[in-house]
Structure formats: structure tokens, C-alpha cells
Amino acid sequence: MTGQQADIQWYIAREGKQHGPLSDAEMRTFVAQGHLKPTDLIWRAGFADWRPAPAVFPFPQPDAAPPPPPAAPAAPAARWPESGPSQHAQNYGGAGGHQGGMGESYGGDSQPSFDPERIRTTDGFDEGRGSNLRRIVGALTLIALLGGGGWYFWQSGAVSSLQDSISSADGEVPTVHAPDASTSDTPLSAQNAAPAAELNASAQELDAKIGQLAAWVVVKREFPDWYAQKLNEAANLKAENKTEAEIDQFFAESLVALRREHANDALASSTPHLKQVATAFLQNLKALSEKSMDACYSFISQGETSAAVLEVLQSPEAGAPVQAQVASIFEAIADGRRSPTAHDKAVKEDYDVLVQELTKLGWQPNDLQVFSNPSLLGKEPPQRVCQMVQDWFLAHLSVPDASVQERLLVETLKPVVSG
Fold first, then answer.
1. Does the global pTM surpass 0.85?
2. Helix 129-145 with 402-412: angle, nearest 10 deg
3. Cα-flanking dihedrals φ and ψ of residue 51, to 5°?
4. What is the pLDDT of residues 232-280, one digit of tens each?
5. What residue segments make up the domains of the chain, in order of their start?
6. In whole angstroms, what is the distance from residue 296 CA to residue 294 CA?
7. Gap between the Cα atoms of 261 and 418, Å rounded
8. What are the φ and ψ backbone dihedral angles of 13, each rounded to 5 degrees?
């Protein structure tokens, strides 16, 4: 892979949700395994706008069905050809993208140009598994994000949608923004029906309820206008006689939308902030596991907006670890906005160190194979999935070399802050 290709970061938008970034190699794995959908939108630096996936990558087309046999009383119905679908050559460079890289031609019936190596179950972890682990985990993360099953099946349900037209400077990631007040789902009739004094009182009441929670303390400090807007929108929901649970859901979804919008800021925070995010995430999983395995698994599979997690949040004591984890992300966002830090990318040797730490935790080659395969991991009981994700973060936090740990954390926290 050339240096230029190594720097490429891909983003996918599906059903109003943005996912990524993914490196060129990781995106190759994602495409080669058939997880990209024709309805997906694709973006990378250099694109002025989101592009439909079929305009960027080739999709297999079924062979034309053979003509039906002549009409006869006992003639069988026409059948699909027994041969599999062929892949027709298409060059991404001709579609306006860069030459080479992700757009290399996929010829005829040949296999895709990138075929990720399978993890071998020989004694111990072999020397080349570090780089393989990075590719697999990167692809696994996005597969899971988009509904492929497995750890990090993050479906935030954020109240956000793709803009009809996104113009971005080269190198700037187009984000899915939370709707502003003009796009509020609250009917104008309801807004006009509630007296201003009543709405103001409701907003103050809601502020007293959420304004002291750890995550909202940071958000209120860093995004005061956004915070005031959400209080007003929630007050309108209350005027519509929405239930407390529906309003709590609105607040949770709004937080997710804001977090995803500023994911790049979080990843540009200092190393201590990155480490704090990972630590808070691990502590949250442990606390949820102690309460119920369903809560832990729901958080991994659905994020902060899952019903089980929202139930936990109703208790200030039980919900404190979740609040602390979300607060740590917004503290990182604040730090990244004020003093962005450039982090080096993880290299093969870094992942060799990570594998060593996983081995110390008792992982065997089969564990890594299960963890890196969404189909296999999806068949595991929730208890094992929760434990494996905890092990994954504990291994990162146990890396003794600070520089190695920093590079690894930047990669592994991408789905945490942007999922």
C-alpha cells in the first residue's frame, strides 16, 4: 500500500447514521466481505459530497436468467442459473476518485484484490498476527456498527439525519448534525399552544433534573446554546403531554447526536483524556455487568439509548458509571476543541504488544478468532461477550509503553466516540 493510500479514511452513512473512520485496508476488508450495501453513502477526503456506494465500489450483478424453455404442458418453470453471480470490472479511478487504492478493478470472476488472511489456530499467536488483528478489528468494528452482529453493535438512534447536500473542505469529515430548532419534530401548533411562561417553567424544572448529572454538567459548560435549545425542545415535548420516559429518551438521543458530531474532537484530545475515556468505558461495563448481564450487553449492542441502560440511568447511584463514561467523552471533546493533539497511527509492533497483553489475560488463539468474527461472536452468550470486551479494554490499559498505548487507544476509541 502506498503512503497516500495508508492515509485514506473512509466514512459510511446508513439510514441517517454516520460510521467510521476506516482505513483503506479496513475498508477493503469490509467491501470484500460483502457488508457494503447499495443504499449506503460513502465519503473520504477529496469528495465534495457524499456519494452512493455503487458509484464508488463495484457490486456483484446476477447473471441474466436463461430464456424460458418452449411452452409445454409439463415444462418446468424457469430457474436461476446455478453458477454464482459474476463480478464485472469497474475502476473507481474512472468515477472521479483517486487512482489505485480502494478503486482497483475487480476482474471478472476472480476474487477481490484484497483477501484478509484468516487467523490460524496454531500454537500461540504468530508474529504476523498483529497487523492482521488491526485489519480484522477495524473491519469488525464497522461491520458491527452497521448491523453485522458482534461487539460494538452501536446503534445510537440519534435524532439526526444526513443533510441533503454536504460541502466539505478537503480533509474535513462531513458529520451528521443534530437538527436545529427549525427542524424540531415538535408541531408548531403545540409550540404556540403552550404559554411562554409555562414553557420557561418546564425548562427550568428540566434543568434542575439533568443539569447536575455528570455528562450534562460538561455539556452545559461547553455547549450552552445547544443545551438551552434542548431544554426548550424538551419543554415543548412536556407541553404535548409526552411521558417522562419519552423525554428521557429525547435527552439521551440528543447527547448521542452531539457526541457523534464532535467525534473527531474527542480523538484529537490529549493522551490522558483518551486514557480516561477508555478507563471510564471499562468501569461502566463492569458496573453494568454487576447489575445485570442484560444491561451490559444492551450497552454494548445498542449504546446509551437502549431500554436497559435508560432504566439504569433513572437511579442516580446505578447510573453514575454511565454518566461518568459519557462525561469523559465530552471532557475529551472539550480538550480536543481547545488544544487539538495529533496522534501517530498504530503500527504492527503495537498490535503485537496488545496480543501479548491479551495472552496474559488468558486469551487463546481461538478466543481471538471468535472475537474477530462477527458471526461467531454473535453466537456467544452475553456474559462472554461482555467479558471479552472488558478484556479488550483492560489489555489496552495494561500496555506498559505510553507511546504504544496512545497509538492503540486512538484506534480502539473510534467506535466509542463516533458510534
1. no
2. 30
3. -125, 145
4. 999 999 999 999 989 988 998 999 999 999 999 999 999 999 999 999 9
5. 9-55, 197-418
6. 5
7. 8
8. -115, 125
